[in-house]
Amino acid sequence: MTHPPASRNHSELQAGSLRAGDHLILPDGSRSAEVHRVDVETDDFGTPAVVLATLSGGGVLRIAAGSTVRTTGNAEDAEPAEAGADTPESAEFSAAAPPASGPFPEPDEEVPDAVLSDAVLSDAVLSDAVLSAVAGSAVVVPPEPVGPPAGNGPSDADLALIPAPDGTPESVVEATAEAHPDAVGVLLLSERLAKGINTKSGSCLKDLSDLAHELFVTLKDAENALAVADLLNVLPFDGNPGRWASVEASLSLSSYICRQLGQEERARIYEKFLRAPEGMEADPFKARINAKVRQRSLNEPNLYDKEIFRSIDNANPDAEREWRLLRLEALLFLRAHGGSETIGVAELERRIGNELESVRA
Fold first, then answer.
1. All domains of the chain, ordered by start, with CATH?
2. Tell me, what's the pLDDT at 2?
């Protein structure tokens, strides 16, 4: 799925005037994200100092209170390129790639909400992103990973439970295309991947993940979907949240398929791989903050209710399906984590079944 840039029809306003529902143009100037909540921190004299804009898909921007920011207005007014008003605007902050989380024990020491508010959710570990606020602008400064994290790869025992690919990655993709010669979505993705699969390329990983989802969600082909997904599932977290988002989606899908097929042990291995980045933080205090933020993201997932209802009201079935696919990915992610404190496994199974029925109709 493509992520269109922010609308060029924007307005400027002071950071202190931001409200929930505004679509804030991000610091890169090419994308927007909906503001879910706005908090204001004051200095010791009671004067507003920093605006904390919590984004709907996860993440917090710290903006100097006197700064001028740009917005695209409400979601209904934004017009992303090559799409209607119902097309997803900012999947960079969506559940296509939700923040990593899982079932964590309660920390021994309570972490203040003010500390959590300063946190920026990445697709893997909270400390993987650093925010810096300067007068007149809001700047997100992601650190460059020095190298792949040590000791993060799958063990030989774990890998033994995942079938090895039948041939090269390209031949696996080619076989799926031959199995579905009339499926346009499969053919388009397989043609791109047939040129060569580079696991260091984020776009290549995204195509593989999309192909696995297309095979299972649209074509009900669990066998080929797992074969394609396993090309991603064995990859360790390399410190890059963008690339890891595609692996996360693939692992979540594979876990669900295996549980439907009764392959419980294999499903548990996928879920173990999915949670691998969560144990990488060595600092105990940061690890406790990460755990609480991840649990909060599980408890308050973005399931795109507003966008889906708007698409239904506008009689736009294509947009409704795209939003439902995002919701499905979010539900699969939650299911792979064993549910949350607000949505149990049984309820997740019911909702996943409903979404599969809807998008397959």
1. 11-141 (2.30.30.30)
2. 39
